[in-house]
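Here we describe the complex-level prediction in full. Unlike the single-chain runs in Section 2.1, the two entities below were treated as one system.
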Amino acid sequence: MNPKINFTPGPSQLYFTVEDHVRTAFRDGIPSISHRSKQYESIYKKAVDGLRALLGLPANYHVLFTGSANEIWERVIQNLVEEKSLHYVNGSFSKRFFEIAQLLNKKPEKIEASMGQGFNISDIVHPGIELVGITHNETSSGVSVPLEFIYSLREQYPDALLAVDAVSSLPYPDFDYSKIDSAFFSVQKGFGLPAGLGVWLVNDKCIAKAEQLLSKGISIGSYHSIPSLYTHAVKNQNPETPNVLGIYLLAQVVEDMVRRGITAIRKETEYKAALLYQALESHGTLKPFVQDKAFQSKTVIVADCGDHTENITKLLQSKGMQPGDGYGSFKKSQLRFANFPTHSKEQYELLVDTLAG
Amino acid sequence: MNPKINFTPGPSQLYFTVEDHVRTAFRDGIPSISHRSKQYESIYKKAVDGLRALLGLPANYHVLFTGSANEIWERVIQNLVEEKSLHYVNGSFSKRFFEIAQLLNKKPEKIEASMGQGFNISDIVHPGIELVGITHNETSSGVSVPLEFIYSLREQYPDALLAVDAVSSLPYPDFDYSKIDSAFFSVQKGFGLPAGLGVWLVNDKCIAKAEQLLSKGISIGSYHSIPSLYTHAVKNQNPETPNVLGIYLLAQVVEDMVRRGITAIRKETEYKAALLYQALESHGTLKPFVQDKAFQSKTVIVADCGDHTENITKLLQSKGMQPGDGYGSFKKSQLRFANFPTHSKEQYELLVDTLAG
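The structure predicted for the assembly as a whole is:
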């Protein structure tokens, strides 16, 4: 009911069907149903089956729910690392994943690139790595790591698990899930849902690793350890009273996306991204922050606006559009534009027409 | 919009104002606002200030938000116990609190009573206890521990922190917060809100203890450690993208409760509890599961129904009322009735009239 077109990269503009689903949820008493009821189990199953269909998850993958993607960073380290993880760090969120491993008293290592930069395949292999963590899409800088680079890490670290932070990219990327071991996201970005739910995809190797740590007497947490989450997941349940409304809304929106077709969603994402990058390239004063096209994110597009940041913001606001601020120290010189499935072609056309002024 | 009167003890019937607040939230675009914006900070502050007023929290208490009360069990142990906690166990939920300490590789001890029983003050003092955990209201059995008993633990364990699980009792109990150190609840019970948010009240001693563990090199978690939660709380923010809609709805419902008056809410709770216990005492075939009046919960009332469980359930359902099942092995012989602020006197009168049939 909010008239503004919201391009902030998270929490995002709601997926356009969410309000209808919320009305139905309250009409049907969903927020009060027991999380141990058959009715809840069928909602849970619908969300999981929908995600399997939308993302093309293989049978050896399992869908687990947490309170946030922030929690998943912690649970990944707790459940999948005895001592040493390796983190590719090129912005605030990938850095945070590394820091969480430090806070959990592991001995993480990192490979760093500057804000706005991607990574090149390296010949140097760090020894003793149990898990490689990489952020597919840095929400802070608009850098996206090519899928081929992610898959190359599996070849470099064949004995490590490969965990992909896909917080601000899914459902756009067409991951080959056989070449990674885990991916995760929070629902308030690409899925356009109210915040308060993290979705964690893990394969059988992750379950085995968590059980191996447990058998060594290492604490892997309690209610949200992988074995606890998995034991409940096979019954379409959660260990705790979960965000029932959030899981219901996810099930509904994923159904809408499956109906629309993931191929159409991906093509439209690419079309809208091309429109905006083209507008930024040809603009007199703006330019894409990420210069190397190989690393330009399709889902979070960052514009260098310099001294024009405030003016551009006002211009867009005057047309009912809200850009996202630049992240951290770039707050006054950059703007960020989410390009999620809820953003229509017409909204992107209005955006680029207004920028072209 | 669901016509049924829902007496299940959690998720509970929604507080009667929630649906209106949800409509307003979506109209105002609350689910899409940035959790780093001034607008969000004012929502956060309203929730915290409201809880301070409603519960009468002293200045040395702080309000922290998590994903669930289940998470708070884990964070209590992780942040406040180096080695040894003591747990009073008299049902499924108090037992779970103890087990979580075991899963986190601490060395918890326990004092047990049977399902349906309370505790007596004991002369035996367990040595080396850093934290005493007690469940004020056992949702599984309908046993409530008298406040005087809780306060007596502070005298027995003057050097330990005292953490009270008040999941299914708050806002009813009028705790003397100077005699405990922490209390916590989840919003889908007494506050009548959609599940997906835990509220953790901690005093300055809890902050100091967490910092002490941290300075010893012990991991107290990452984004949801007490120091991380507290550092953000003083700025009216969360470490992660939180359940923004949940915190907004909490702020609104707490405001409604403050307006109604906590004294009126407490008196009404006692009136409704007296009605139902009276009906059970005088009933031909039903009786209260908790026989000792000193331990009878005011907020979760459990009836022994024996072979009549199914018939009573059908009778209530025929009048539009949904009782809660008995917990675990009592599923076929007991019914549970939540007596929360959202349950009106008229609903309770209909309940007892129907039972008296």
